[in-house]
Known about the structure:
Blueprint (H helix, E strand, L loop, with lengths): L8 H11 L4 H8 L3 H9 L6 H11 L3 H5 L4 H6 L6 H9 L14 H16 L3 H21 L3 H20 L3 H18 L2 H17 L3 H15 L6 H20 L3 H18 L12 H14 L3 H9 L9 H18 L2 H14 L1 H5 L2 H11 L8 H9 L2
Helix pairs in contact: 1-3, 1-4, 2-4, 7-9, 8-9, 8-10, 9-10, 10-11, 10-12, 11-12, 12-13, 12-14, 13-14, 14-15, 14-16, 15-16, 16-17, 16-18, 17-18, 18-19, 18-21, 19-21
Amino acid sequence: xxxYGEEHTGYRIARARKARRLTQRELSDLSHVSYxxxxxxxxxxxxxxxxxxxxxxxxxxxxxxxxxxxxxxDELKLDQLDGLIQPIREALNVYDLGPDPDVLPRxxxxxxxxADELCAMIRATDIKKAAALLSSLIFEATTTAHTxxxxxxxxxxxxxxxxxxxxxxxxxxSDLCAVALDRMDWAAQRASDPVIGGLRQYLRALAxxxxxxxxxxxxxxxxGRSTLEQAEAGRVRDVVTGQLxxxxxxxxxRDKDEDAAEGHLGEAYRIxxxxxxAERVHWLSFGPTNVQAHRVSVLAELxxxxxxxxxxxxxxxxxxxxxxxLAHHHAEVAWAQMWMGDTAGAFRSLQTARRxxxxxxxxxxVVRETYSGLEAARRRMPETFSNFASWLRV
Length: 394
């Protein structure tokens, strides 16, 4: 029985398979996903892991988002978030048109303060408020950069584009995410800032991770590290380098390369010992806590779920660790707990993620797949499980 109506990942996989006129056995052979796993996922009896969804998407020649159903348009409309996307799209499209005569920008100091404020909002998981303010910031920063070209103004614009990436990624708009990254690169080149350039390659690698193109993601990580070699040595370069290693670790874990994943985690740990907590450096959440959280992620990617849950239990949380990262961590722990058979613990972790970051959690594909897995064990779940379903709108 399907976990929540027809529109679940397994249903969409079956629909795409039939459109390609493939049998389940043929798709299993093409994707190297076991026949048993494929049939259970299509029936809704088993949640689809990111690696399984990615393998099936590649075999079917469709975007991963076609199988996950992102963006979740009905939910976005109910939350009145869909109407905030078009202004961001329009702001991203005018990057090369020069100064807009109808835009009167605020001072550089005011724009920089708001750019920083929007980064903080995203980390505090106030996505809706950040999205509402973002388009005007981009329009003003674009006019400022074209009117008075300087490294400072191009960096400001690059920061605004980075926030556009954050917003569109969290809401599931992969097309706009790619556009925002291209615009970020365009501004970074004009700022001649290798740190922003390296950061952009890291974010781009994450986009390829979500698209399940691990080979390209790994190449982008290497390119980002090469770009950073041009930057001035110091804590900022170390932080971005460490975050690149963390991204590489998750890519290797998703690709089931345990040795490479452990190597990158080790490098990130050594860097974090030097930098200490550095959550606000380019708002990357880097530091010892983030390294520990990525170890949990890697273990889960390697299907080592008991080890992942154990590592999560031994984590020491930084006092200023961003809520967005904390909620994401709890969602990943819920996934591992669900696969261990700890349905009650998994549901508690989902509720924790919801309490910390409701907007982010509602649009998180791992949360939805974890819910799908828990649905099979519904008889053992508390009454509040149905309430969570209503809130998740599935």
